[in-house]
Write a structure and sequence with these properties.
Layout (H helix, E strand, L loop, with lengths): L1 H6 L2 H9 L6 E5 L2 E4 L4 E4 L2 H4 L8 H12 L12 H14 L3 E7 L2 H16 L3 E5 L8 H5 L4 H4 L9 E4 L4 H8 L4 E6 L15 H11 L3 E5 L14 H4 L5 E4 L11 E6 H7 L17 H16 L2 H20 L5 E7 L2 E6 L5 H13 L3 H14 L1 E2 L1 E3 L2 E7 L7 H19 L3 H16 L1
Parallel strand pairs: 3-13, 5-6, 5-7, 7-8, 8-9
Antiparallel strand pairs: 1-2, 2-3, 4-10, 9-10, 11-12, 12-15, 14-15
The chain binds pyridoxal-5'-phosphate.
Pyridoxal-5'-phosphate binds next to helix 6.
Length: 444
């Protein structure tokens, strides 16, 4: 850790220290993280939806090792990477609709950047439309599509000609699209980091119809929601939409090799790669590398053989029912909602004076303080790793690997119930928060 602190990012190490989450992991298997000091922690964050198949899945590991041992053309650049063809076919077949071509990248943000360029090339328009509260990644183009100032401050100027609409508001969307200025409307089917905003059943279908009417491409960012996280292969499949592009990343390679993918229509492909002179007009060095492609193929096999999408749908419903029963009646619990194995527990400011005073004091120090104390308690006292949403600090995200068992979900619900009880009885939860506030102030 000392080398990381000295040579990489000392601020991150300090933050983990303040949160009492600075531990050394020695072995991560399935849903379990083992620490050097002998603790076992249940992962309910999945590296932000990377570990859908669980940590270090033996079949995905074996496929990667076999690919290395094959001594093949892993990164030749000047050949035809056959494995990219196989994975491209499998992804497009599963996505369905008009999506018949794949572009591979090494991250979600890189996929978003590609989608921005492809939609400009296809429409001849420059402006982009996105939804407030979105998370699309931290490269300049992707960041330009996000409204939250925290991520943008100090990094401007962003892409010119980006506008944003309220997620779910069709009138606003229609008014913007009617200008016929926008190349694409890029949107997450479920806004996870905004606090798990799930649109009503018609929103995306209507958005698609509006996009078609005004010549704007519909691009769905499924970087967190794809790969069976919400039940079906894509969250788009819940809503009956047929987008022009889909962006995938995170879980696609089993959490072991960086990867990203943009699935697009033939028409979009042809607008960018319009002649053989332009055959490599948008590419990147590690795109289509054999290890990522092999890991992607093995991950699809695992997710499907183990029927993890069906598991996500069934167990996701069960955990929400258990949470609703256990957390009923607590004034700070506002709502439990979710889709598949993505669940949000939304908290709200307390009304009772005894709780309101400390709550407001901590919110003044930092708006994420309350959520981080909750995360800290779950981690330190209950051995469960969670996180709050990146753009909504009052929402606890529940996103374990899809291989999670009913018993582990019960364990989580019991643990969260105990902490929620503690926070409502005053006392220790808030004095811990005070301790953390002191450490934060000391660290600033
Ligand atoms: C919905 C969504 N899109 C894009 C990204 C960016 O992906 P990456 O961090 O791989 O660049 C993220 C990352 O969290 C994400 O959640």
């Amino acid at each position: 850790m000392r080398l990381y602190e000295k040579w990489v990012n000392p601020q991150w190490v300090r933050l983990l220290d303040v949160l009492q989450m600075k531990v050394r992991y020695s072995r991560c298997i399935g849903t379990e993280l083992h620490t050097e000091d002998g603790r076992k922690i249940l992962d309910f964050n999945s590296g932000y939806c990377v570990h859908n198949a669980g940590h270090n899945h033996p079949r995905i590991k074996a496929a990667i090792i076999a690919e290395i041992e094959r001594d093949g053309a892993a990164m030749l650049q000047t050949g035809v990477p056959e494995l990219a063809g196989v994975l491209g076919a499998q992804l497009c077949e599963r996505a369905g609709g008009k999506l018949t071509k794949a572009f591979f990248a090494s991250s979600g943000s890189e996929g978003v950047e590609a989608a921005i360029k492809f939609s400009r090339a296809h429409t001849g328009r420059v402006a982009m439309l996105s939804a407030k509260g979105a998370f699309h990644g931290l490269t300049c183009g992707a960041l330009s599509l996000m409204s939250d100032a925290f991520w943008k401050d100090g990094f401007g100027p962003m892409l010119a000609d980006v506008e944003m609409v309220t997620f779910g508001a069709l009138d606003e969307l229609a008014a913007k699209l009617a200008s016929k200025r926008f190349a694409a409307f890029i949107v997450e089917p479920v806004q996870v980091e905004a606090g798990m905003r799930i649109p009503d059943g018609e929103y995306l279908k209507q958005a698609q119809a509006l996009c078609r009417r005004y010549g704007t491409l519909l691009v769905l960012d499924e970087v967190q929601t794809g790969l069976y996280r919400t039940g079906p292969f894509l969250a788009a499949h819940h809503f009956g939409v047929d987008p022009d592009m889909i962006i995938l990343a995170k879980a696609l390679s089993g959490g072991l090799i960086p990867v990203g993918a943009v699935l697009m229509t033939d028409a979009v492909y042809k607008s960018t790669y319009s002649s053989f002179k332009r055959s490599i007009v948008h590419t990147s060095t590690y795109s289509e590398n054999a290890l990522a492609m092999r890991a992607g193929l093995a991950t699809l096999e695992v997710l499907e053989d183990e029927r993890l999408g069906e598991g996500a749908a069934g167990l996701g419903e069960q955990v929400r029912q258990m949470l609703a029963a256990r957390l009923a009646g607590y004034e700070m619990v506002a709502e439990i909602r979710g889709i598949g194995m993505l669940t949000a527990v939304e908290f709200r400011a307390p009304k009772r004076l005894r709780l309101r005073v400390p709550f407001q004091a901590f919110a003044r120090i930092h708006p994420a303080m309350f959520g981080q104390v909750l995360v800290m308690h779950l981690f330190r006292d209950k051995g469960i790793l969670t996180q709050i949403c990146g753009n909504n600090f009052m929402v606890l995200k529940v996103a374990p690997p899809l291989i999670v068992t009913h018993d582990q979900l019960e364990q989580f619900v019991g643990a969260l119930g105990d902490i929620v009880e503690l926070m409502h009885s005053g006392g220790r939860f808030w004095s811990e928060a005070l301790g953390m506030a002191r450490r934060v102030i000391g660290a600033i």
